[in-house]
Design goal:
Elements lengths: L11 H11 L4 E3 L1 H13 L5 H15 L19 E3 L7 H10 L1 E4 L2 E4 L2 H14 L4 H13 L3 H6 L3 E2 L8 E3 L3 H20 L6 H37 L3 H16 L8 H18 L11 H14 L5 H15 L5 E2 L1 H7 L6 E4 L12 H13 L5 E6 L5 H12 L6 E4 H11 L4 H5 L2 E3 L3 E3 L4 E5 L3 E3 H8 L25 H33 L3 H5 L4 H4 L10 E10 L1 H17 L5 H9 L6 H9 L8 H19 L11 E4 L4 H4 L33 H11 L11 E4 L7 H16 L4 E6 L2 H9 L8 E3 L4 E3 L5 H9 L2 E2 L5
Parallel strand pairs: 1-2, 8-9, 9-10, 13-15, 14-15, 15-16, 17-18, 17-21
Antiparallel strand pairs: 3-4, 3-7, 5-14, 6-13, 10-18, 11-12, 19-20
Helix pairs in contact: 1-13, 2-3, 3-9, 4-5, 6-20, 8-9, 9-10, 11-12, 11-13, 12-15, 13-15, 15-16, 19-20, 19-23, 20-26, 23-26, 28-29, 30-31
Length: 804
């Protein structure tokens, strides 16, 4: 099904809007902040928290400033072309610093300079929320009940996101709006509400939730109608017949959808975008409202319009690109550490190549057009993911490789043969759900339309566990006795004693972080429900419960996320071989070399760098890393319940926390320098140490982690563009991917860019502002990344062949 398009480049219209968006300055929109304070001051203590949230959302929809830009889809995230809303309910401490010292806030891929009005509203929020934020409440409760200093754990780089950096998010059912209309969903809510007996405590709570959900859905209908009125008014004054026609079509679509079922592809796309937009308006949080089911939901409308001759594939490609531009208007404000952890990701995943519920290949024309649209426009978001299975035609797989050739790191490949048994094992979907899986968060597989998501134990720095084990639980960078005393490394007589100390440190912090995350989950559940997106998530309406309160049919509970395990495994291998087997490096000398960051100890540094490394199909090191992953999984399995007693799954990925937590980690026995980025992903190689070719790397990556037990894994590979020069080389490339999956791998993604280009982009960012690369479970404009993240990507091993 290789579509033939008469236009293979962006239209001038798309190019103009792309340029307008990417050159727009980042700005903070304080309208939501004003509404937030007004709603809370007028209603706090009079209505339950769920109604506070609903009233805020309804007010935002009804009163926020709206405008229509040059995009044929209506609806901007804020009153600016590229702006962000603050979310002070989560945390205000860093906002106060930004307002009163820094004068700027990072907004996803740019910095926003704060105006005096911005600073004034931020300070009002700091005064109002103070110790009532999610972060403040969690830290206080954990300190009072467990005697744990959360800030100290974070300062030592032991864990990231231990207090979730936003509210509970959902992978909603967009098709409810497209096929049923929000009026239909409201009718369902009202029918369920009519069954209640508010004399009962449980029904009393449900009654409030139903009222809140209806209020939110009505709010989005109001917002859409406001755009309809504005478009109609603009059309009446427009002299250009083409622009007038566009505005009239927009007015008609917004007046009808999403309140009612969509009648054609354009209305369905407009409705889809309104749901995506509203999810972010309610919850300014990366990972919010991933549009996984774009193809499945919109294909029936595409097919109907194509059969009736109402649109062409070129027109559909252009509309898809305009939707992509809308997605890239989304942005979230970030603290300095938050930026280090996430960079500019949105996690707006779109899946292509899916199976249907019966397990048949469901790849269609719209999948092809998604790939083509992204090949032309080359934007970081949405992130295209391929559901890999043996039923995919080769020409479609070659089309995926063609997109990878652009260098944007998309699509990532996800093997359905691992996703299905994983989801069945963890109870996150039926067989039919699993066959049609999507992504939520970084790379976690989920049942679209039925799933909620919250990280409840944080990203554990496994490399730090080795560092603490070698220093009797003390952080050598700041001298804090943060972990349990497990013995001085110089006293260990065997490698097994060191290994046991690593597991003891790990078990202590997995338990601690699970408790912290559970408290945070309860704070979010009680104070910050999300009734809009919950109303579009099965089975919240049937239960009368928010996703934060367990309403979703399934919960993709991310428990502990393991990061830095490759550094830990390589370090353990180095100590085992050099200290305990070869006895060529005494433990006390190794510790001195680490404390000095190798300065003056170059011989020991060389030996550590030359010790066995992951990624070379070497059983010595691979068995150590696999054993570590298995042991950590077994430890977490004892702590795998979330704040509602539900099963949580252990996971392994990095986002960009290999950088953010690496800054708080000293020199490691694997040869890494102090405070440098740790190894990315979960099975990637320590940069420059995979010497035996891509097949050896793939074999190691597939061997060291059980991709069914773990909720996800994460594998980055870097190839030179010349490797994909012709069809035969692309087939070899696909063969490598198949080999990796056959050996047990689940996820793999590629950077297809050479080191020289990346170095040139660092030196001349303005000349390379469109360069997109793959960072972790997301792509980003290279020049917007922190310099240390850029350096880490540059250091990754480049493959110029698929042989060996």
């Amino acid at each position: 099904m290789n579509l033939v398009l008469t236009k293979t480049e962006m239209s001038d219209w798309v190019r103009r809007e792309r340029e307008n968006l990417l050159t727009s300055p980042a700005q903070i929109d304080t309208e939501k902040t004003k509404f937030l304070l007004q709603v809370y001051r007028e209603n706090e203590g009079k209505v339950p928290p769920v109604m506070l949230r609903a009233k805020l959302f309804h007010k935002l929809c009804s009163e926020r400033t709206i405008f229509i830009d040059g995009n044929p889809l209506a609806g901007t995230f804020t009153k600016y072309n590229y702006g962000a809303y603050l979310q002070p309910e989560y945390s205000t401490k860093w906002l106060g610093i930004a307002a009163n010292r820094d004068g700027k806030i990072r907004v996803s891929r740019q910095e926003a300079i704060l105006t005096e009005e911005d600073k004034d509203w931020i300070n009002k929020c700091v005064d109002f929320f103070g110790d009532r934020t999610t972060t403040a409440q969690t830290e206080r409760i954990v300190r009072e009940h467990y005697g744990i200093n959360v800030a100290e754990i974070l300062r030592c780089g032991i864990v990231g996101e231990v207090i979730p950096s936003g509210f509970v998010v959902s992978c909603p059912d967009f098709s409810l709006a497209l096929n049923k209309g929000l009026k239909g969903v409201i009718a369902q809510i009202e029918a369920e509400k009519a069954k209640l007996d508010v004399f009962k405590a449980e029904d009393f709570d449900k009654w409030h939730w139903y009222n809140a959900a209806s209020l939110c859905l009505e709010g989005l209908i109001i917002l859409a109608n406001r755009y309809a009125v504005l478009a109609k008014e603009m059309a009446s004054k427009e002299a250009n017949p083409d622009k007038k026609s566009i505005l009239e079509r927009m007015a008609e679509a917004c007046a009808w959808a999403p309140a009612n079922p969509a009648r054609n592809f354009y209305e369905a796309l407009q409705s889809f975008w309104f749901i995506h937009l509203a999810g972010w308006m309610e919850n300014v949080y990366v990972t919010a409202t991933p549009p996984n089911t774009f193809v499945a939901d919109l294909y029936p409308f595409y097919k109907k319009d194509k059969v009736e001759g109402k649109l062409t594939d070129e027109e559909v490609t252009e509309l898809i690109q305009f939707y992509f531009l809308k997605v890239n208007q989304l942005a979230s404000p970030m603290s300095v550490h938050g930026k280090a952890q996430s960079q500019s990701r949105l996690s707006a995943h779109i899946m292509v190549g899916r199976l249907d519920a019966e397990g048949n290949n469901d790849c269609n024309e719209l999948d092809w057009l998604i790939l083509e649209a992204q090949r032309q426009i080359k934007l970081p978001e949405p992130t295209i993911g391929l559901v890999y299975h043996d039923k995919l035609p080769e020409d479609f797989l070659l089309k995926c490789v063609e997109l990878i050739q652009t260098g944007i790191g998309q699509p990532a490949f996800h093997d359905v043969e691992k996703a299905i048994p994983r989801m069945l094992m963890h109870g996150t979907g039926t067989l039919a759900n699993a066959r049609q899986f999507g992504l939520i968060g970084c790379n976690q597989s989920a049942s679209p339309g039925c799933s909620s998501f919250l990280v409840t134990a944080g990203v554990l720095n496994v490399a730090k566990m080795v560092e603490l084990a070698m220093n009797n639980g003390k952080d050598p960078l700041n001298g804090i006795q943060v972990g349990p005393k497990t013995g001085e490394a110089e006293s260990f007589k065997t490698y097994g004693e060191l290994y046991d100390a690593v597991l003891k440190q790990s078990e202590y912090f997995i338990h601690v972080c699970s408790r912290i995350g559970g408290v945070a989950g309860n704070v979010l559940r009680y104070n910050f429900p999300t009734p809009f997106i919950s109303a579009l998530t099965h089975d919240c309406i049937e239960k009368g419960k928010d996703i934060a309160d367990g309403g979703a049919k399934y919960t993709v509970g991310s428990g502990v996320v393991l990061m830095g395990a490759i550094d830990a495994g390589n370090s353990l291998a180095a100590v085992k071989k050099l200290v305990f087997e070869d006895k060529s490096v005494p433990m006390n000398q190794l510790k001195k070399a680490l404390a000095a960051d190798w300065e003056g100890h170059e011989d020991i540094h060389r030996k550590c760098l030359n010790a066995p490394k992951h990624g070379n199909d070497d059983e010595y090191i691979d068995s150590i890393t696999k054993g570590l992953y298995d042991a950590l999984y077994a430890i977490y399995d004892k702590h795998d319940k979330d704040y509602l007693g539900r099963h949580n799954q252990a996971e392994a990925f990095s986002v960009s926390q290999h950088f953010s937590l690496g800054r708080f980690t000293g020199a490691m026995p694997n040869g890494r320098n102090s405070r440098k980025a740790l190894t990315d992903a979960s099975v990637s190689a320590q940069p420059g140490t995979d010497k035996n070719g891509p097949t050896a790397l793939a074999k190691s990556a597939a061997y060291v982690i059980d991709t069914i037990k773990f909720g996800t894994n994460h594998f980055n590979v870097k190839v030179l563009p010349s490797v994909l020069k012709d069809t035969e080389s692309k087939r070899k490339f696909l063969s490598l991917i198949r080999t990796y999956f056959d050996l047990g791998g689940y996820h793999i993604q590629f950077n297809c860019v050479d080191r020289e280009t990346l170095i040139a982009a660092q030196a001349n960012p303005l000349e390379h502002r469109d360069l997109v690369v793959r960072v972790a479970g997301f792509s980003a404009f290279f020049v917007t990344l922190d310099a240390e993240v850029q350096d880490e990507i540059i250091r990754r091993t480049e493959y110029n062949t698929f042989a060996g």
